[in-house]
Structures are given as C-alpha cells and as structure tokens.
Amino acid sequence: MSVDQIFDELLNRESLFINKRVLSHDYIPEILPHREAEIQKLAYILASALKGGKPSNVFMYGKTGTGKTAVAKYVLKKLIERGERLGLHFKYAYVNCRYRKTNYRVLVKICEEIGCRGLPETGLPADVIFDKIVKYIDERDQLVVIILDELDWLVKTSGDDILYQLTRINNELNKAQVSIIGITNDIKFKNYLDGRVLSSLSEESIVFRPYNSEQLYDILKQRAEMAFREGVVTEGALRLAAAYAGREHGDARRAIDLLRVAGEIAEREGASKILEEHIIKAVDEVDKDIIGATVRDLPLQEQLVLLAITVLKALGEQQITTGKVKNTYEKICTYLGYSPLSLRRLNDILSDLETLGIILAPVTSLGRYGRTKLISLEVDLKSLVKIFLEDSLYAAALSEFVGEEAIQKIVKAK
Ligand SMILES: Nc1ncnc2c1ncn2[C@@H]1O[C@H](COP(=O)(O)OP(=O)(O)OP(=O)(O)O)[C@@H](O)[C@H]1O
Ligand SMILES: [Mg+2]
Predict the structure, then answer these.
(1) Which of 236, 259, 261, 279 has the least CB density, counted as fewest CB within 10 Å?
(2) What is the extent of the structural domain holding 78?
(3) Each residue's pLDDT tens digit, 300-317
(4) In this structure, are 148 and 45 located in the same domain?
C-alpha cells in the first residue's frame, strides 16, 4: 500500500473512538463508581468549611490507580463550586510532588495555583515565599486546600521541613484557613515523617482499597460508553481487560490504558470491533509503557543498579545477592565511565527499587556466609531489556556483559 493509500484509507474509515480524551490519565468522570464511601468521607471532612470551620488535614493512602487523585480533585472541585455559590472565597492548590521534589518548587507551585504572581524565577529563599503565601492567602481567601499528591517523592528528596511548616501555617493566618491533603501510594511513607508532622497531617485518613475485577469492569464500562462508538467494545474484551488489571492489585489506570491501547491496535488493524485478542496485544504494550516510564524516571545511579540486576538475570544467575549486584554494578560503572557508589548507598538504592515495586529484595541468611539480600525482578525481564536497549549506552553495556546473541534471544522470546 502506498503512503497516499494509507492516508486515504485512514481518512475514509470512521474512527472507533468518539471521544478519546475520556481515556486520558487526567480525565475525571462525573461519576466515580465504587468510590462513594471515600468521596463521602472527604466531603464530610471538607464540608465544615461551608459553615466557616476549618476542615481537618487529611492523609490519603492506597496503591497506585485506586482513585486517590481522582477523588481528591473531584471533591475539591465540587467544594469550590458550592463555595462560589455561597459567595465564599475557596481555592485549592494541586501540587504533584513527583515533579516538584524540592521545598522551593513546591512553594512556587502553590503560589502559581492560588494566583499569587510576580515571583522571580529563582533566588528567593523558601522562607520569603512562604511568608508571601501567608500574606496573600490572608488578604483574599477564606479557605485554601493544599493537595500534596505523591508526597513521598518530596519527603524522600527534601525531608519533611516544608510539611512541618505547612501544617502550622494556620498559626500565622488571622482570617483565612488552610487545610492540607497529603496523598501517597508508598506504604513505608509514614516512616519518613517526624511524629508531629505525621499526627497533624493525618488528623483524618482515608484508605483506598484496590479495586477487584468486577469493580474495574464497571469503571471500564462507563469509560467505554463515552470513548467509543456504540457496539465497538465487545463484552468479552471489557471482561478480559478488567480481569487483567485486577490480577495484580486492581489498578484502574492500567485497566483504562488497556482499553485505550486495545482500541488503537484494533483501529490500526482495520477491525470494526475491539475483541479479546486486542486486549491481549495491549497487555504487552501497556506493561512495557508503565515499566518504561518508571525506569526512565529513575535517577542515573538507580538505573545503573537496575541494569546490573538485569544483566545478572539475563545471564541466568539463580541467586542474585547484594555482593553479585555490587560486583556487576561496579563493572558497568567502569565500562560506562561513571563512579560507583558505596555499598551503603547501593543498599539504599535496592530499597528504593523495592519500594517502586521493580524488585523484591528480602534479607536472607546464607548460613555461615552471613546475611544478604536475595534479589529478584518483579517486572518482566524481556520488557526491562527492551527498555534498556532504547538507550545506546545501556545497550552497549548489555551487549558487553550479556552478549548480543543472548540479548536477542530474550527480546524475541514469546
Ligand atoms: N472509581 C473510579 N471510577 C472511574 N475512574 C476511576 C476510578 N478510580 C480511578 N479512576 C481512573 O483511573 C485512573 C487512575 O486513578 P488515579 O489517578 O486517581 O489513581 P491514584 O490512586 O491517584 O494512583 P497513583 O497512586 O498512581 O497516583 C484515572 O484516570 C482515574 O480517572
Ligand atoms: Mg495519583
């Protein structure tokens, strides 16, 4: 088929999608099935603001894709709308700490969100910005809710000073009030916090349980009806996508991704319906995507440690100990011209990779040889190898330490 024919065919064919945007990560539907209890709880907590009270700070915790961000934004939007109708000055500031890991950047983002402009790009000390925020809020607003999403990223990078300050901001405000909503999917997060910060942050807490397959099915069905033309998505495909996404820990984001990618695959193939086979093809693509995004987000040294584990695994190593990882990691560092970190830092990195769900690293006793971590991959080796191959330096290292032939075998395996 010529390029022109491809274009012609695409233009003449009716798309399977009618509204693809509803399948994007930040779309929030008007109804969030199976989150009624969490929505109600948050609404009750915030409702006191409508009568002039100060809502408690809230800590929201649950695994990835369980609707934390969606619920927080959904309820806040409603609260602001209701406040407006009552003539109240409510605002909220949404900060995703994954992309703003320093105190400075979090404060600047809060400023932007509440409309406090005129800050220089850099150069102001965090204290000064903090004071500006206090003054700005106190002059204009009655309530500002600060949502600190993916809060673990900030605290791991920059400690909890800023949280301490923010949870005490009300002492400095005369007229306005601030409530904080902290959100995380990291189970160990509480360990990073000072006791005082933790207790003021979690005056109230809401736990988000993973969805089961039936619940995911309902969520998918709602999205499918909005996203695709009628009759395009088959019942079997929906069931299968829900089952796949429910298998690990009930991640709605993954379920929706599967549906979107299956739709794209079906469309590419010129199919008129989305069938189970399209979901199966989507699984591979989506998994690679999710792992890929996580791996690409890792700092350099963490990528190098993960590469070392990947090399060992690709070589068929049965017992991957900390010692073996260290050895291979150092060789890779030398080969690529980076300086390796100490054993202590290496252990920290292994813990981080475990927190991210990329590896498992339980400490095991090796009898008289002492104790070590025994490391295994929690993600598919083939996907990981493919991701590393996208980067020419890492591809060179894989070829050097595993061998081109073995690498190709892994990539081509079913
Ligand atoms: N009950 C629900 N009904 C409809 N859509 C939902 C529901 N729960 C989650 N979603 C959708 O699934 C996706 C993931 O949800 P969300 O971003 O809220 O997850 P999260 O708990 O914040 O995950 P993470 O910890 O990874 O940030 C979003 O696109 C969201 O709109
Ligand atoms: Mg989220």
Answers:
(1) 236
(2) 36-208
(3) 899 999 999 999 999 999
(4) yes
